[in-house]
C-alpha cells in the first residue's frame, strides 16, 4: 500500500493536517496534498536533520491527524520519540519511505563514511552515535560560518579541485512556490545554509576519498567571500 493509500485508508483527508519536514524534497508534502489533507511543516533536529519530536509536538493542532517522518540521507528519524508524541495526541505515524534491509552497498558507504569521520577537519561531520542505523545515502557535512556564501564558496573551491559535491536541499519546501508558508524554522534554515553532500557511493575508491580529504582540509573548512 502506498503512502497516499495509507493516509486515505486511515480516513485522513480534507480538513486534516499532517506534519512533515520542510528540510527534504517536496514529495512528502505532495503526498499529503494528494490525499486531500494539508501539510504542516515542523523543524528538524540539528544532528539527524530529520523531524524534531519537540517541534512536532509544538505544531499539533485540533486538526492534526498524522505525522509523516522522512528518513533523510539514509539516517532514520527518531521514530520512538515521534511515536510517543503521536500517542499523546492520538495521531497516526506514517513513514514516508522505508529504509529497507542493510545491503552490501550500504555497508561499503559506511566504511567510506567512517574514513571521512576520522580524517576530515574544518567541517562538521555527520558522525552517528554508536549503534545508529545510518545508511549514508549521502554524506552530509556542515560548513559553519556566516551562512550560504561560506558554504557555497567552499563548494566551488572543492569543485575546482575536481571533488564532486552538491547542495542537498537548495530551498526548504515551505519556501517553494507550491507550498509557501510564512513561518521561521530556525534549524531548517541553518541546515539549508550550511549543509553540503560529499560523495560516498559504494563505487568510490580510497584514492578518491584521500583526494576529498586533502582538498577539504587544505581549505580549512571556511572561505571568506569578499564584500
UniProtKB/TrEMBL annotation:
Protein name per Swiss-Prot or TrEMBL: DegT/DnrJ/EryC1/StrS family aminotransferase
Domain of life: Bacteria
Stated family: Belongs to the DegT/DnrJ/EryC1 family.
Organism listed in the record: Streptomyces gamaensis
GO molecular function: transaminase activity
Record's keyword terms, sorted: Aminotransferase, Pyridoxal phosphate, Transferase
Pfam families: DegT_DnrJ_EryC1
Gene3D superfamilies hit by this protein: Aspartate Aminotransferase, domain 1, Type I PLP-dependent aspartate aminotransferase-like (Major domain)
Amino acid at each position: 500500500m502506498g503512502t497516499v493509500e495509507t493516509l486515505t485508508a486511515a480516513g485522513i483527508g480534507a480538513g486534516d493536517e499532517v506534519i512533515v519536514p520542510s528540510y527534504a524534497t517536496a514529495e512528502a508534502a505532495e503526498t499529503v496534498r494528494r490525499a486531500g489533507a494539508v501539510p504542516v511543516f515542523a523543524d528538524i533536529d540539528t544532528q539527524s536533520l530529520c523531524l524534531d519530536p519537540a517541534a512536532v509536538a509544538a505544531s499539533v493542532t485540533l486538526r492534526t491527524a498524522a505525522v509523516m517522518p522522512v528518513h533523510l540521507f539514509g539516517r532514520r528519524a527518531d521514530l520512538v520519540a515521534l511515536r510517543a508524541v503521536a500517542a499523546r495526541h492520538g495521531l497516526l505515524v506514517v513513514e514516508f519511505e522505508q529504509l529497507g534491509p542493510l545491503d552490501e552497498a550500504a555497508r561499503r558507504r559506511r566504511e567510506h563514511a567512517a574514513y571521512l569521520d576520522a580524517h576530515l577537519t574544518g567541517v562538521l561531520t555527520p558522525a552517528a552515535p554508536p549503534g545508529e542505523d545510518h545508511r549514508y545515502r549521502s554524506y552530509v557535512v556542515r560548513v559553519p560560518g556566516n551562512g550560504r556564501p561560506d558554504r557555497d564558496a567552499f563548494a566551488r573551491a572543492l569543485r575546482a579541485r575536481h571533488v564532486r559535491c552538491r547542495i542537498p536541499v537548495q530551498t526548504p519546501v515551505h519556501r517553494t512556490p507550491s507550498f509557501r508558508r510564512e513561518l521561521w524554522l530556525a534549524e531548517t534554515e541553518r541546515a539549508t545554509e550550511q549543509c553540503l553532500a560529499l560523495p560516498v557511493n559504494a563505487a568510490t575508491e580510497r584514492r578518491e576519498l584521500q583526494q576529498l580529504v586533502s582538498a577539504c582540509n587544505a581549505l580549512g573548512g571556511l572561505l571568506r567571500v569578499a564584500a
